[in-house]
Amino acid sequence: MNLHETAPRLLRLFIAGFALVLVQVGYWTLYRGAEMANHQRNPRYWTRVRSVERGRILDSHGQTLAESVLDTEPAKKADDDLPSALRRHLFRRRYPQGDLLSHVVGYSDWRQGQSGVESALSSYLTPPQALAMPRSFWELLSPPPRRGDDVVLTLDASLQKTAALALGNRAGAVVAVDVQTGAVLCMADYPRFDPSSVSDGKAWAKLIGNKEDYPLLPRAYAGLYPPGSTFKVLTAAAALQAGTATPQSTYQCDGTDKLGHSTVKCDKRSGHGQITLERGIAQSCNIALARVALDLGASAWEQTVLATGITQRPALFRPGTGTALVPPGKVPTGAALDGPQLAACGYGQGALAVTPLYLAGMGQMLGNGGLRHEPYLVDRITGSDGSVLYKGAPDAGNLVVSASAARATLAMMAKVFESGGTAAGLSRGMDLAGKTGSAQNPHGQAHSWFLAVGPARNPRVAVAVVVENAGWGRVAAGPVAVQVMRAALGR
Ligand SMILES: [Zn+2]
Prior knowledge:
Blueprint: H1 3-31, H2 33-37, H3 43-50, E1 57-58, E2 64-70, H4 76-79, H5 84-87, E3 91-94, H6 102-105, E4 108-109, E5 113-114, H7 116-120, H8 122-125, H9 137-141, E6 150-153, H10 157-167, E7 172-178, E8 184-190, H11 201-209, H12 219-222, H13 232-242, E9 250-253, E10 256-259, E11 262-265, E12 273-276, H14 277-282, H15 286-296, H16 298-307, H17 341-346, H18 356-367, E13 371-372, E14 378-382, E15 388-391, E16 398-399, H19 403-414, E17 433-441, E18 444-454, E19 461-467, H20 477-489
The structure holds zinc ion (ZN).
């Protein structure tokens, strides 16, 4: 082998290698360039985000929940490679409500990323056009003033505060929705965190490392719990709708009964004796509601339950993205309802799991004559010039049960607060419909649930409350729901 032979071969190899590099560079700059520039792992992306005055997040009364302020102490070490003129124009997020709305508003931090409204509505709060690459060196040194759009929520911060105080430092959640529209009025939960603390590395490590309380879990809309006896009202409404039961239909409860393929136990061990469906709801009889479900049949029960949207991810943050943040519930369907599941699900102890948001939505549907609206959180988005860019509104709705079935179910739920009911004396003079629940779970004491709709005869608000491992619905969740209802109806 001599030079004469190898030189052309080397040249060809060199040209091929060079072409390969060209293709690579072209691919990453021309084809994937925009994606790379806006990738959340790209520090320059975050520099651009921080140089834009992000829009505010406001409650329904105009209270500021999140705003951008000039960062007077940029993390110097991490920003060392930035020109000093740019460093003076960096913003940081301020959350004046502290931890009160941490799971709704979320956080936006260049180190830890984003969550909640900050994540789902990020393309409005910091519009992509405001993030355009600087067109000249001078623009890089003195960026033009840019401001994002404001996001106004349907949520009422003062009602949120009432809910948070009523829940106290017990793990759980409180959700209130407008019965006529599905607009979310409050969505409080505990444990929470202060979104301002997210930027502190040590505080952040502590938050994500807490595997006991999960303070980053938005329990109100992402916590899945067995619904317990609160689900009885849906079984009752489905049976009334199908005509397989009336409020006066009677059932025999001896405390324990062999139903279908399993043994159903009532919380009242001695049994309720002869009991109507109406008393079965008021006194939360498992055996009566298991029978109601069996009489109704699996396919009719399934059809009504699926119509409530239980298996769908709610588009809570619409028009934003982020439905991935809101999980669907769980319900056995088809063949899985054969055997003992139908009877167990009928009274809320089958293989069911729902979020507090879902349960509040069930109250909304019953209070709104059976017409379900998807819950929503964004009331409007306004541009920096004050123009309305988006207006939130209830969806067309989905009729789950007839108006008469919904009305009759609410009338039975009103008996829950009357003498002999599981929440007797709890309504404090208000005209309410409700249902207690205590959901057995393998991780300790039962979860305490309460669903309230009020006023019972002219419903405006639905409230769902869960208090983890707190036992009977009447004891823990009930008083919280009534307190929040009183504040919500008095608004
Ligand atoms: Zn019973």
